User: What shape does this take?
Amino acid sequence: MTPQYERLQKCYEIHKEKIHFEPRVALVLGSGLGDYADQIDTRAVLEYREIPGFPISTVPGHKGRFVFGYVDTVPVVIMQGRVHYYEGYDMEDVVLPIRLMGQMGAQILFLTNAAGGANYYFQAGDFMLIEDQIATMVPSPLRGANIEELGLRFPDMSHIYDEDLKKLIRTTAAELQIPLKAGVYMQNPGPNFESPAEVRMCRILGADAVGMSTACEAIAANHMGMKVCGISCISNAAAGMTPNPLTHEEVQETANRVAPMFKKLITASVAKM
Assistant: This one.
């Protein structure tokens, strides 16, 4: 047993002592969606600080707790506040919550985020279904000794984002008449926004949206056999695409503005999972 798996098991045992609820879907809330967890049929809450040694989110708007309950009739665990690599945590810490939700019983990981649009056809407020990703700019969460109890040493990443779940979300968006773009998400280290030259590089590499989370979480979930899907809220045009400087306030403002529609799409999609 590796130290990483031993740590994961200790976290799981503490969770099991406090929470008697098995989720089917794990949902990670990005910027602007923090209060979504307050609107579901909540059955239990587990604060990150109740788990010794568990990473704590330091970003404004990220509460730092697991919320257990139902979206429609679907049992879910919601990560209300994610942990980012740029906060100074090792990648093992960043994906620990994802692995823990998988241990809790979640079979599906639904990732959301606010991202900068690198595609000139995207506008602030658009939603982008994540078709694929680029994670080469950050360390792999699988680096180091493989956790054999979770998955293979060299896992396939041909279909990180599940095809059936992507189809489900597309169909749901169409039914709700919510416009939905699709594209490739690229994770960068942060916390600084990308330079115009870096955005041009991302675009050349095939990225439609850039951000500071998500891709590493998807890798960890895929490694342990979870089905993954994700939606980015395009919160701003990436650096160099407009003359305006980028601010976190702009990201938050856009995310908050489109949050009601985003929540509607998430609820209707999760209800079918």
Q: What stands out?
A: DSSP finds six helices and nine strands in the chain. The radius of gyration is 17 Å.
